[in-house]
Amino acid sequence: MLLPRFSYLLRHPPPLHAMARAVTCATQPSHFHASLGIATSRHPVSLPSKSSLFCRTFHALARCQSEEMTRRRVAGVRAGQREYRKARRRAPPKSKGKELQLCVDICIEEDLPDDPEILSIAELLRLNVPMAMKLVFDGLKGSRYKTRDTAISDVGGFDSVELSVLLCNDEFIRKLNKEWRNEDRATDVLSMSQHVPGLKIPILMLGDVVISVETAARQAEERGHTLLDEIRILMVHGLLHLLGFDHEISEEAEVEMEREEEILLKSLDWKGKGLIRSAFDAETNSNFHQDSADDRKKEGSLRFYKPKFRYIFCDMDGTLLNSKSQISSTTANALREASSRGVKIVIATGKARPAVIDIFKMVDLAGKDGIVSEFSPGVFLQGLLVYGRQGQEIFRSNLDQNVCREACLYSLENKVPLIAFCEGRCLTLFRDPLVDSLHTIYHEPKAEVMPSVEHLLASADIQKMIFLDTDRRVADTLRPYWSDATNGRASVVQAVPDMLEIVPVGTSKGNGVKVLLDHFEVTAKEIMAIGDGENDVEMLELASLGIALSNGSEKTKSVANVIGLSNDEDGAADAIYRYAF
């Protein structure tokens, strides 16, 4: 059959989950056609006997043999798994004359996601491809094309025609494009002819059409098509190339092939103008030619895009959390999608780990298969506690005991609420509505009231302390006082305007992120970071792409590569959809 370079081992008919493993490759010459937009070339090449690229695994759908047989057999695909009602087999109607058999294999490259939409499209192609083949063959009869290569002239002279269609990802088609056409880039469709003129055999081995689903998804989004529409357009384009149409050899050839695409799509009642016309429209419309790296992908479409980063480090307050201290459904979906594509979402926050887990539980993203759990990595308490693989502690820094004592005494004397963070516990010296709000609003562990300063200091190691007051008193009184009082023994930072944090000298999320990157043996070039507060500055500076939300501090925005939407506008989700893929 076809796709010899993929050397599938197809059973007829196999179930949808059947596999095909590449073993050997063809040695006969082939012609390749490719298009990305309207840039297409045709190169005769000699195939080597083996290719490491194609020692791969493919999911193969059952072969379609003629349009009539396809109609009868498609309902039985995976009948056992899907519990479809199995229809009684009927003998094919007796043919009055010789019937041309159209044999089509639809394959799905193994690295494509196991996505219901892709499987559905693959099943539809089992019907659609033979329909398109029959129509285009009928159109060749008696037609006089000025530019078409007539190496395939009389299709009716064969007993059967064989064609393979492979759905793959960008990486696969890029490698294929580089190996066979010496172009190191992904493209939308490759047509690879198997026809050998003059070879007297009853089978017309038409060739292979390879389609990148990822590129097709992007083009569909740009052109207002569904993914099925775009894949049909690419399949028609590839099929016409295999039949000798080549739009790149001359303007006349381009017009002739463009007209044939439009006629074929219209006759089949499929949407779209054809690949050549769509690409031309895109080139003449500047809106379609903005940098795609800055275009926001649609929610639900990330499965068709390649991640640009291995890790995304995200702040919580003012970033993932909106002004109501909640993760919106849009942000939750973006995190879920990015994670499903293999991107590791790592939380880097001033919060304690239990607080973060509780927040993510509310959007069903906590636990083993979620974003955060007791077994996931993360940077907490402004980088004072860092957890690595399997959630094991890999770094801890505690606040100077004398500074802790002075802060406690200041709190009692000035009646300013103070909370001491001790890993997963919060300790305080007296009840206050602001203390309670840290639990009820910010989801931190409920503060335990200690009977005295000594009891508090003896209860556990303290990583940081937070004073709670009004925005104005924090800015005018607390921050100036403690900036001087710490005298190099500690530092003061702010994540939100109404809280002042006292932390060990040298503390920063950036340092915590560095510790984690060293632990993972990952470079800063592989990470993207999203934050808003001045405690996010070092983290954003460290990352390959640092994004500050528009609600962030001016200092944070001044060091960011990009200023995004606000946290109340789902800025973190927008950043993921716009820049991470």
Automatic annotation (TrEMBL):
GO biological processes: rRNA processing
UniProt-listed SUPFAM superfamilies: HAD-like, Metalloproteases ('zincins'), catalytic domain
NCBIfam families: Cof-subfamily (TIGR00099), HAD-SF-IIB (TIGR01484), rRNA maturation RNase YbeY (TIGR00043)
GO MF, any single term: endonuclease activity
Cofactors named for this entry: Zn(2+)
Protein name: Endoribonuclease YBEY, chloroplastic isoform A
Keywords, alphabetical: Endonuclease, Hydrolase, Metal-binding, Nuclease, Zinc
Record carries keyword Protein transport: no
Gene3D superfamilies: 3.30.1240.10, HAD superfamily/HAD-like, Metalloproteases ('zincins'), catalytic domain
Superkingdom assignment: Eukaryota
PANTHER family the UniProt entry points to: ENDORIBONUCLEASE YBEY, CHLOROPLASTIC
Family: Belongs to the endoribonuclease YbeY family.
InterPro entries hit by this protein: Cof, HAD-like_sf, HAD-SF_hydro_IIB, HAD_sf, MetalPrtase_cat_dom_sf_prd, YbeY, YbeY_CS
